[in-house]
Write a structure and sequence with these properties.
single chain; about 100 residues
Length: about 100
């Protein structure tokens, strides 16, 4: 009985490590996409997100346009596609998460 319990604990520890590795891979992908912006753009993105406080109506039309341009530069669709591809048991084709023209 003790052997069964210890093997289950070992499996749980491995599962935690796998989750940590998955989070680390996503963090690296996120960093790669955020660093598509220069430091000034990153600061401005943070300012706009804080000013908006989760509501588009808290921003002016110009600020909304600026925020949309900064987010587009990060390419969130590509980020999500690359993250999904990392964890998919079957490789996903690039066209599925490329930017549409």
């Amino acid at each position: 009985m003790a052997g069964t319990w210890t093997s289950r604990v070992g499996a749980l520890k491995k599962l935690q490590v796998a989750k940590l590795l998955a989070l680390a891979e996503i963090a690296v992908l996120a960093r790669d996409h955020v660093y598509r912006l220069d430091s000034t753009e990153r600061r401005r993105l943070i300012q706009l997100v804080r000013a908006g406080r989760g509501r588009r109506s808290n921003l002016t039309a110009e600020e909304r346009d600026e925020l949309a341009q900064l987010i587009a530069k990060i390419e969130p669709r590509l980020f999500v596609g690359r993250a999904a591809d990392k964890f998919s048991p079957v490789p996903l084709p690039e066209w599925m998460f490329k930017r549409r023209s």
